[in-house]
Design goal:
The chain has 223 residues and is an alpha/beta fold. It has helices at 22-36, 42-48, 53-63, 72-90, 102-111, 125-131, 155-162, 178-186, 215-222, and strands at 9-12, 115-118, 140-141, 171-175, 190-194, 205-207. The chain has a six-stranded parallel sheet with strand order 3-2-1-4-5-6, with helices on both faces. It is globular, with a radius of gyration of 17 Å. The mean pLDDT is 94.
Length: 223
């Protein structure tokens, strides 16, 4: 792991890291899984964390042995339906939905002139950041439509560093999902896993919840 003094930028996932919108994603996917006749489990929910829309749908279909039951057009319609359900669930989202300590952490990064970018596979991330009143801190965002591969492929985190004009080793990525941590590590950046340390055991640094994520704690973990 590099020294803290080498770090110049922070790359964020959104759902489950900045705000608890992952709950709404899970609810919307659960609704669709029920409609498709696929049993919803905690393991399936964890597999979908940090994964793009179409890849998530394919994982659900595979879980139910239905991966070959639908045409691509039908899959797009189901994915769109899920997204519509998700957007309905998001109505009323405010800065009160920011996870504990994350607003202060982002403001501290800004005050100390660290560069910040967003590496979320969610196409709704601009709307979410606006609702959370955090958009002004994330002028640099990876556009998921420009990506060839989803997490755990490292492409999104490599891109997150590139748009900041930084080298991978100058960046820290923050994730709550196994696939996201693998993506950060594959991009050769320092990974911060937020959540169960047993599940996120490949992360360079672990915090059990967002309230522990501070510059001081990250520096302590890297020194």
């Amino acid at each position: 792991m590099v020294k803290f003094e080498q770090i110049k930028g922070f790359i964020f996932d959104l759902d489950g890291v900045i705000a608890n919108t992952s709950v709404y994603h899970a609810q919307a996917w659960h609704q669709l899984a029920d409609e498709l006749g696929v049993t919803w489990t905690d393991d399936l929910a964890n597999q979908l964390k940090g994964v793009g829309r179409m890849d998530s749908l394919n994982l659900i279909l595979k879980s139910g042995g239905k991966e070959n039951d639908y045409t691509e057009d039908e899959k797009v319609k189901y994915a769109t339906k899920k997204n519509d359900n998700y957007l309905n669930l998001l109505k009323g989202l405010t800065d009160d939905d920011i996870l504990a300590g994350m607003k202060e952490f982002i403001q501290d990064l800004d005050a100390h002139h660290y560069l910040i970018s967003l590496a979320s596979s969610s196409k709704n991330s601009p709307k979410v950041l606006e609702a959370l009143d955090l958009a002004k801190y994330f002028n640099e965002r990876v556009d998921p439509d420009t990506l060839t591969h989803g997490k755990p492929d490292p492409e999104i985190y490599r891109r997150g560093a590139e748009i900041l004009n930084l080298k991978p080793e100058e960046c820290i990525g923050l994730e709550d999902a196994v696939s996201g941590v693998k993506s950060i590590n594959g991009a050769h950046e320092t990974s911060v896993g937020i959540g169960d340390p047993k599940m996120l055991n490949e992360a360079d640094i672990n915090f059990t919840d967002t309230s522990q994520v501070t510059l001081a704690n990250i520096k302590k973990a890297m020194d």
